[in-house]
């Protein structure tokens, strides 16, 4: 018997993608992270267009796989994940819901910058645990390309911030 | 875009990508060996970013040449011989001490910041968009390498001495940044890419000023190294052999 693809509606596709976690920050899903650009049917193939965060993000292959798997589990037989680099992804595209989740998990969310990254880098960063601004930059780089490391002088804990991009 | 420009631009981008790849490889050699844990993390990230930027440029070249961009970057990286690479000698020199690697990163980052600023204004939109992406990421590189040049330059007698020695060794190689990239003349005339000589003039002014502020003296009478991106030091074949050894064991393997 020939298998027939489940022709999900746009709303169903976006809902399914909202269940795909970011591999490095599983508390946040791909839609609220702001990397899903478009979904479209071309005949029986469902094309999902994404814009990766950092150029060298090592999580990309896993993201590609998890999108495919989630949609195949919903009955879509042919899924194509396309990469679109322009316009470049920006932390301005991250939803407020994602920012709150990062904050709650102890990862300082990227400050809003309206296009001027250097300007916000001059501003003090609040500790996601105790809220103190008595913090100090420890490293421009962190455990993934998208993070940098700070120390909170008040609660004495190190923490990471998602880099504004 | 005209066909001749497409071809010229692919060569230009491959040269840019080769710079990123080779510098990224040298940066990666610090993983596990940097003087402090934070710098181990920093250099591992610099390496990852540079190699990621190389991939973006190779993919753009693939688009221009009608090649498959999912396989073309790996073909260029793993299956070209060292003689076919078009990177600057500046980035292929062994990593040296930490002062040397940090200063090289600064000299390169400062030039790249100017080039990316110009490329993000390119009349060829796909190029302008990729340049804009890389440019924001590079802000963090320059901020980092600049801070260390200043700290080490003005630090102790030993740190300042090592930075000055690194500068004396690297400065002649850095002069090659002024040379046009492959295809640059025609592409510049068409408004697609900037002139390296113009960028170099700005770079030279900014960098010598910053170095002076860091207590370091660039030797302006320094002899100029060979400008030709086809000429490499013996260090490149060794690096490429290392980089390609696993891929060449089994060229058909899938990853």
Task: Characterize the structure shown.
The complex is a heterodimer of chains A (165) and B (255). Chain A is an alpha/beta fold and 165 residues long. Chain A folds into 2 domains: 10-83, GMP Synthetase, Chain A, domain 3 (2-Layer Sandwich); 108-162, no CATH class. Chain A has helices at 10-17, 30-33, 60-73, 96-104, 117-121; strands spanning 36-42, 45-50, 78-83, 107-108, 135-139, 147-152, 158-162. A 4-stranded mixed beta sheet of chain A has the order 4-7-6-5. A 3-stranded mixed beta sheet of chain A has the order 1-2-3. The N and C termini of chain A lie far apart (49 Å). The model of chain A has no long low-confidence stretch (mean pLDDT 92). Chain B has 255 residues and is mainly α. Chain B has a single domain, classed as Ferritin (Up-down Bundle). In chain B, 69% of the residues lie in helices and 0% in strands. Chain B contains 10 helices and no strands. In chain B, helix 2 packs antiparallel against helix 6. The two termini of chain B are 35 Å apart. The relative contact order of chain B is 0.15. The model of chain B has no long low-confidence stretch (mean pLDDT 95). The interface between A and B is medium-sized, with 25 and 26 residues.
């Amino acid at each position: 018997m020939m298998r027939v693809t489940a022709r999900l509606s746009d709303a169903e596709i976006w809902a399914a993608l909202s269940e795909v976690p970011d591999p490095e920050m599983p508390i946040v899903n791909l839609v609220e992270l702001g990397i899903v650009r478009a979904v479209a049917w071309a005949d029986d193939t469902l094309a999902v267009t994404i814009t990766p965060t950092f150029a060298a993000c090592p999580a990309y292959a896993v993201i590609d796989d998890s999108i495919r798997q989630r949609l195949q589990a919903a009955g879509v037989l042919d899924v194509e994940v396309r990469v679109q680099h322009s316009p470049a992804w920006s932390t301005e595209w991250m939803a407020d819901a994602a920012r709150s989740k990062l904050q709650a998990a102890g990862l300082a969310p990227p400050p809003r910058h309206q296009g001027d990254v250097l300007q916000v880098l001059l501003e003090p960063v609040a500790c996601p645990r105790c809220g103190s601004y008595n913090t100090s930059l420890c490293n421009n780089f962190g455990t993934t390309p998208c993070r940098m490391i700070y120390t909170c002088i008040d609660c004495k804990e190190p923490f990471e911030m998602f880099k504004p991009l | 875009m005209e066909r001749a420009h497409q071809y010229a631009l692919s060569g230009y981008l491959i040269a840019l990508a080769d710079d990123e790849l080779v510098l990224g490889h040298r940066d990666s050699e610090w993983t596990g060996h940097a003087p402090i844990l934070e710098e181990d993390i920093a250099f591992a990230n610099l390496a990852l970013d540079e190699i990621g930027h190389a991939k973006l440029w190779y993919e753009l070249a693939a688009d221009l040449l009608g090649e498959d961009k999912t396989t073309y970057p790996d073909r260029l990286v793993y299956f070209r011989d060292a003689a076919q690479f078009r990177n600057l000698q500046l980035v292929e020199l062994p990593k040296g001490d930490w002062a040397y690697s940090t200063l090289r990163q600064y000299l390169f980052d400062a030039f790249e910041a100017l080039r990316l600023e110009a490329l993000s204004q390119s009349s060829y939109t796909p190029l302008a968009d990729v340049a804009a992406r890389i440019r924001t990421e590079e802000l963090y590189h320059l901020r980092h390498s600049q801070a260390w040049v200043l700290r080490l330059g003005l630090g102790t007698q030993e740190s300042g001495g090592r930075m000055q020695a690194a500068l004396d060794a690297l400065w002649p190689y850095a002069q090659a940044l002024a040379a046009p990239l492959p295809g640059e003349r025609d592409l510049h005339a068409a408004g697609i890419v900037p002139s390296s000589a113009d960028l170099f003039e700005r770079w030279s002014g900014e960098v010598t000023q910053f170095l002076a502020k860091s207590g370091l003296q660039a030797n302006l009478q320094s002899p100029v190294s060979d400008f030709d991106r086809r000429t490499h030091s013996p260090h490149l074949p060794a690096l490429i052999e290392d980089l390609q050894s696993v891929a060449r064991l089994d060229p058909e393997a899938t990853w």
